[in-house]
Design brief:
Helices cover about 90% and strands about 0% of the residues. It has about 140 residues and is mainly alpha-helical. It has one domain: Orthogonal Bundle (Helix Hairpins), CATH 1.10.287. The chain is rod-shaped, with a radius of gyration of 34 Å.
């Protein structure tokens, strides 16, 4: 395979791999936002629980136990959702990491091919310069 085509193929593979990474990054960011929202809801419930439990009156005492149980049940439900989203996020992160490794594995051959291309260009330029120098040093004279 010619060097130029090899470089183009490696660059194409890198772009395709980068697109895969980008395609997975968007859902991962959405998952992280959902996790943050659910974590915030969990914290608000905890704050609500602490505030209500602190301000117990004779009128609210009979309802406090059911309130605490309901809040704890909701917190448990949120914790399960957060764990599920964390598992999905971890799966996406692992997939992204795999694609990133694939992309990085292309760096070395691509760098080598580019170095070789530059070396060949330098050799051609040097050869052309040598030919010019020889022609100037030893001009071709036409014989009649």
């Amino acid at each position: 395979m010619k060097l130029g085509k090899r470089i183009a193929a490696l660059e194409l593979l890198q772009r395709v791999t980068q697109h895969k990474i980008d395609d997975l990054a968007a859902p991962l960011n959405r998952l992280r936002q959902e996790i943050a929202d659910l974590t915030q809801q969990h914290a608000k419930l905890q704050h609500s629980l602490e505030a209500e439990a602190y301000e117990v009156t004779l009128e609210s005492a009979p309802y406090l136990g059911r309130f605490i149980a309901a809040v704890q049940q909701q917190q448990h439900f949120l914790s399960l959702q957060i764990q599920s989203l964390n598992d999905r996020a971890q799966t996406l992160e692992d997939e992204i990491l795999g694609h990133f490794r694939d992309k990085k594995s292309l760096d070395s051959p691509l760098d080598s091919a580019r170095d070789l291309q530059r070396l060949e260009a330098a050799r051609r330029e040097s050869s052309a310069n040598d030919e010019i120098a020889i022609t100037r040093r030893f001009p071709i004279t036409h014989m009649p």
